[in-house]
Amino acid sequence: MRWTGLAVSCAVLAVAAVLSIAIGAQTIPLGELWRELWHPAGGETAAIIHDLRIPRTLLGVCVGAALGLAGALMQALTRNPLADPGLLGVNSGASLAVVCSILFFGVTDVRTWVWFSLVGAALATVAVYALGATGRGAANPARLVLAGTAVSAALIAVINGVLTLDSGVFDQWRFWDVGALAGRDADVVRQIAPFVAVGAVLALTLGRGLNAVALGEQTGQGLGVSLARVRLTGATAIMLLCGAATAAAGPIGFIGLMAPHAVRAFTGPDHRWVLVYSAVLAPALLLTADVVGRVVVRPGELESGIVTAFIGAPVFIYLLRRRKVART
Amino acid sequence: MSAHRTLSTPSRRISLRVHLRSAAVVAVLLAAALAVGLAAMGTGSAISVGDVVGTLLGQGDATSEMVVYELRAPRVLLALLVGAALGVGGAVVQSLTRNPLGSPDVIGVNAGAAAGAVLMILVVGTTDAPTLAAGALACGLAAALGVYALSFRRGVQGTRLVLVGIGVTAMLHSLIAYLLTRADLYESQGAKVWLIGSLAGTGWERVWPVAAAMLVLLPAAVALSRSLGPMEMGDDTAAALGLRVERRRLALLVVAVLLSGVAVSAAGPITFVALAAPQLARRLTRAPGAGVAAGAVTGALLLGAADLLAQRLPTPGQLPVGVLTGGLGGLYLAWLLHREWRSGRS
C-alpha cells in the first residue's frame, strides 16, 4: 500500500517535472519537447529547454526535496508539529549573510550569494545549537526552539536595521527575500547539490532512530538509540538541507512545515515513510507552484515562494479540517 | 488568581508576601516607565528634562509647550500605551496556551494588520496615519476572525487553531513580500519601516484611538484574568471551581486579539514585546499566575526604553523602534536562557 503510494507520488513528481520543462512564456508541445530533449536541434527551443527550463526544474527538485526532508526531520526531532526548519536560525542566518554581502562587498550575483548564505546558515545553526546545549544533558528540542527564537530575533533586528538605513541594500534584498527559482542557472544547482545529497543521506538514515525517539526518550535509549547522536545528526542534516535550499532560492516558507503534515495523512506516523514521501511530494508541490506562477500573470511571473504559500496554505487548512489533529 | 496562590502555598503568610512583592514590582516598574517617558520628552537638542517638568507643571514658554505637547508627548504616550497593550496581550495568550512562546500573533492578527497596512501604503497609496491604522485594524481583526472560523469544527481545538493560524500567516506574509517587490523602491521601503514597527512622527491622532481602546480593554483584561490562574491548572479543575471554561477562554482571546490589533495598527508589528514582557514580569514578581498588571507595566517600560534608545543612538538615520526591541529582546532572552540552563534549572 505504501509502496503503491510511493510509486504514485513519484509519478506525480515526474508529471510536475515534465510540465515545468514544457510550460512557460513559450509553451513547448510534448512531441517537440521529447525530440529536443534527446536530439537538440540547436535552435531557440533547444536553448530554452537545456539552458533555462531543465536547470530550473532540477533546482526545484533539489530545493523542494531538501525543504521537505528538513521539515520532516525538524518535526520529528522536536516532536512538535509546529516546528519549521527555519526555527534553528537557518533562514535568518542566511538572510543576514546575504545582507552583509551586499552591504560590505557589493555582491549582486546569485552564485556568490549562495556561498555567503551557506556560511551564514551554518554559523547561525551552530550558535543556536551551542546555546541549546548549554549545561548538562543533550540539547533538548524545547531548548533548541527557544534558543532559535532568541538568536533569530537578534539576527533579524540587525537585518532590519541595515535595511532601513540603506535603501540600496533593501532594493537587492527584497528580491532575494521573496524566494524564487527563476534567474538561477545550472551552476547554482551544481553548487548546492553536494550539500543536499549529504543532508538527504543523513536524513534518510535517521528514520529508525527517529521512530525510537518518538516512543519517548527513555524507551528510545532502552532500544539502544543514542539520543545525543540522533539530535546532532538531525541538526547537521537540517543545516545542510535547509541552508542549501535557502541559499539557492531564498527563504521559501511553508513547504518544510506543510509537507510532513500532508504526507502523514497517507503514511501514518512511521518516520521512515514520512521522510521518503516528504522528499518526493515536497518538490512536486514546489514545481507545481513554480509552473502556476509562470502561467497566472503572463507574460510576467509570480515567484514560486509566493505561489507555494497560496496553493499550500489552503491545502494545509483543508487537511487540518478533514482529519483530527494530533494533540501536542 | 488568589485561589491559585492559596492552593500552591501552604501558609497564608507566604501568599501575602507574594502579593506584596507583585504590587511593589508593579509600582517600581510604573515609576521607571514614567521616568523613561520624561527622559524621552527631554531628549534631543531643543529642551532639557528640567524644562519638560516645568512645562508639564504649566511654567514653560510657548516654544517648549509646542515641543512637549505637540511633538514629544504623543510619541512617549503612544510608546507606553502600545507597550502596555502588547504586554497584556502576551501575558493573556501565554497563560491561555500554557506556552512561553505564545502571543496574539499566533492567530494571524499581526500578519493581517501588516498586510492591511502594506495594502494601504502600496496599493491605495495613503500614508495618512488614521486611515492606515483603520485599514490595518480591519485586516488584522478579519484575519483573526478568519482563522477562528476556519478552525471551527464542532468547537475549536487549540492545536488546530494555531496550525490554521500558521497557514493563514504564511499566505499573508507572502502577499506582503510580493507587494514589496512590485512597488517603487521609496514607497516599498516606507512600507518596510512600518512592518518593523516605528513610532517616529507620532501625532495625537495616532494616540487617541489607542488610549480609548485601552480604557475599555485593560479593565476587561484585568477582570477576566482572575480566571486565568484556575485555568492554568487544567480545564477540569477550573470547571470544578465553577468556571465556564470555553466561554471565558473565548472572551480572553477576544480581548487579547483586540489589544494586539489596536497596538499593531497604531505602531506596526513591533516584535518581541508581547513575548518578552510577560516572561520578564513573571521573573520579577516571582508570582505564579499571569500578572496582567505586571505585564502591562513591563511592556510599557520596555517599549518606552527601546524608543528612547532609538532616538538617542548615533545612527545615520533614526532606527525604527522594532529593530531595538528585536535586537535587545533577542540578546536578553539568549542570555537569560543561557544562565538558566547553565545552572541546571530547566
Automatic annotation (TrEMBL), chain A:
Location of this chain's protein in the cell: Cell membrane
Pfam family, one: FecCD
Keyword list, A-Z: Cell membrane, Membrane, Transmembrane, Transmembrane helix, Transport
Membrane protein topology class: Multi-pass membrane protein
A Gene Ontology biological process term: siderophore-iron import into cell
InterPro entries the UniProt entry points to: ABC_BtuC-like (IPR037294), ABC_transptr_permease_BtuC (IPR000522)
Domain of life: Bacteria
Chain segments annotated as transmembrane: 57-74, 86-107, 113-132, 144-165, 237-262, 274-296, 302-320
Single GO term (MF): transmembrane transporter activity
Annotated Gene Ontology cellular component terms: plasma membrane
PANTHER family in alphabetical order: FE(3+) DICITRATE TRANSPORT SYSTEM PERMEASE PROTEIN FECC-RELATED, FERRIC ENTEROBACTIN TRANSPORT SYSTEM PERMEASE PROTEIN
Family per record: Belongs to the binding-protein-dependent transport system permease family. FecCD subfamily.
Name of this protein: ABC transporter permease
Organism of derivation: Streptosporangium minutum
Automatic annotation (TrEMBL), chain B:
Subcellular compartments: Cell membrane
Recorded GO CC terms: plasma membrane
Biological process, per Gene Ontology: siderophore-iron import into cell
InterPro entries assigned to the protein according to its UniProt record, in alphabetical order: ABC_BtuC-like, ABC_transptr_permease_BtuC
Coiled coil region boundaries: none
Gene Ontology molecular functions: transmembrane transporter activity
Spans through the membrane: 74-93, 105-125, 131-149, 161-180, 207-229, 250-277, 289-309, 321-338
Principal subcellular localisation of the protein: membrane
Entries under Gene3D superfamilies matching the protein: ABC transporter involved in vitamin B12 uptake, BtuC (1.10.3470.10)
Keywords, comma-separated and alphabetical: Cell membrane, Membrane, Transmembrane, Transmembrane helix, Transport
Lipoprotein as UniProt keyword: no
Membrane topology: Multi-pass membrane protein
Domain of life: Bacteria
Entries under PANTHER family matching the protein: FERRIC ENTEROBACTIN TRANSPORT SYSTEM PERMEASE PROTEIN (PTHR30472), FERRIC ENTEROBACTIN TRANSPORT SYSTEM PERMEASE PROTEIN FEPG (PTHR30472:SF24)
The family this protein is said to belong to: Belongs to the binding-protein-dependent transport system permease family. FecCD subfamily.
Name of the protein this chain belongs to: ABC transporter permease
Organism of provenance: Streptosporangium minutum
